[in-house]
Design brief:
By secondary structure, this protein is mainly α. It is built from 4 helices and no strands.
C-alpha cells in the first residue's frame, strides 16, 4: 500500500516498494558496498566464468548504481558509456559469449 492510498485490507503487491524503516538511511557508499558484495558473493557461489554471466552481474551492478545517481535519466547505453571504454553492443557480446 502506498502512503497516499486509503487504508485497505488488501495484501501488499510484490511490485509495491518496501515500507521504509523509520530512521534508517543509507549513504551511496554503503549501497555501493552492499551491491558489490552481493555481486561478488553470487559470482563466487556460482563459480561463474570470467565472461558471460559474470559480465551480466557486473553490468547490473553498474546500472543499479548509475540509476541511483541519475534518478531515471540514464538508460543502459548511458550506463555503459559512463562505466566502460566500449559501447553497449560490445558489452552484450561479452554477456552472450
Amino acid at each position: 500500500m502506498h502512503a497516499d492510498s486509503p487504508v485497505s485490507d488488501s495484501p501488499v503487491s510484490a511490485t509495491d516498494p518496501p515500507a521504509p524503516v523509520p530512521g534508517r538511511l543509507y549513504t551511496r557508499a554503503a549501497v555501493e558496498a552492499a551491491v558489490n558484495r552481493a555481486a561478488d558473493d553470487v559470482i563466487e557461489a556460482a563459480e561463474l566464468p570470467d565472461t558471460g554471466a559474470r559480465d551480466a552481474v557486473n553490468l547490473t551492478v553498474n546500472a543499479a548504481l548509475s540509476y541511483l545517481d541519475d534518478a531515471g535519466g540514464m538508460d543502459l547505453a548511458g550506463v555503459v558509456e559512463a562505466n566502460y571504454d566500449v559501447d553497449l553492443a560490445e558489452v552484450l557480446t561479452w554477456i552472450n559469449s
